Amino acid sequence: MHRRYECLHSPALGRTMELLIFGHYGPPLLAFPSAGGRFYDWENQGMIDAAGPWLEAGKLRLYCVDSVDQEAWLNVDADMATRARRHREYEAHILHEVLPLVRGECALEQGGVAVAGCSLGGYHAANFALKHAPEINYALCMSGRYDLEALIGPSPSLDVYYNNPVAYAAHLHGDALAAVRANTHLALVCGQGAWEEKCLAETHRLANILAEKGISHERDLWGHDVEHHWYWWKRQLAHYLSKALD
Hints:
Elements: E1 3-10, E2 15-25, E3 28-32, H1 41-44, H2 47-50, H3 52-56, E4 60-65, H4 80-106, E5 113-118, H5 120-131, E6 136-142, H6 148-152, H7 158-161, H8 165-168, H9 174-183, E7 185-190, H10 197-213, E8 217-221, H11 230-245
Parallel strand pairs: 3-4, 3-5, 5-6, 6-7, 7-8
Antiparallel strand pairs: 1-2, 2-4
């Protein structure tokens, strides 16, 4: 299948960012790595193979982006303001540097972009979809963590609040809520097996909020044998690509 490596200078982050692009045609899917991961995680963990039939058929183009988790929310040696600022810079990188590349290659003026991720990548997928509904129309969130304060500790910071899906989504209203309702669908997928306890609880919390707000979503719980593991995320990805693209 078509595979391309890109190395981009990011003015937003002040350094080089890398990504891998798979597929020659089709709608774009932006893939976030898991906690502290890199742009090559999806390839190394077999997710590209799981998406192979749709990539080779020209039904999908997959953009595997890099992360700065260890410089942002997971940087326990930095104060909260520094961690939040780095996340804002990462958000600007995705919105103003990566998405224009995606839209140009896929001939999209606005919208038409899906995002996906596992574990903390699932957090990023949900957060981008809820905050940037006109740009992001679909989020596949597998074993996601959606309560940022449960990961980094309680904080009065507005930056934390506005990047904590279970906090700000509960208070969406007016034009912001209308934009999400009109433009976005979230698939919240989680197993019920080993190492999924926190993800499962937060999946229920976010799904309940989305239901209360009338936001299009799925709450898809897999079996009690389904663990927090790439083996299952590969199967979940293939299942959802089949539903969306076949």
